[in-house]
Design brief:
about 30% helix; about 140 residues; alpha+beta; 6 strands
Length: about 140
């Protein structure tokens, strides 16, 4: 399991918006294909990044659990990795504590695990930068 936790000086509502608004997701994570993201269990959506040899850049996702402004969990499936992403927001006196957890790595996926650990630290940094620019 990869786990990254960030303290953010932003209200949970603002952080939630960046986790669930397709236009904002494209700025810090990945673009949502067709800008479609239904916030209900079972809803499928697709994220897309640059392809590279052996992968077309498509991430297939399905919402597993959602508690508005508290928790969002969805599958994160690519040909070489099938995991679950969970974002948990906890209000604090100065903003929000965001916990990002990617679970389900297999023992032989050390390279994918390392890439995800690096990637989520970088992406949560991009998220903080985006939130600082938003009204």
């Amino acid at each position: 399991t990869v786990a990254v936790e960030r303290e953010m000086p932003f209200a949970p509502e603002k952080v939630w918006r960046a986790l669930t608004d397709p236009a904002l997701l494209a700025e810090w994570l990945l673009p949502v294909v067709n800008q479609e993201l239904k916030l209900e269990p079972g809803a499928a959506f697709v994220l897309k990044t640059q392809p590279y040899p052996g992968w077309d850049g498509t991430v297939n996702c399905r919402v597993l659990e959602i508690e508005k402004q508290r928790k969002l969990s969805y599958t994160w499936a690519v040909p070489f990795l099938d995991t679950v992403m969970t974002f948990t927001l906890t209000p604090t006196g100065s903003g929000t504590r965001l916990s990002v957890v990617q679970s389900g790595f297999k023992l032989d996926q050390k390279q994918e695990f390392g890439g995800s650990r690096y990637g989520w630290k970088m992406m949560t940094g991009k998220l903080v930068d985006l939130l600082a620019r938003l009204p």
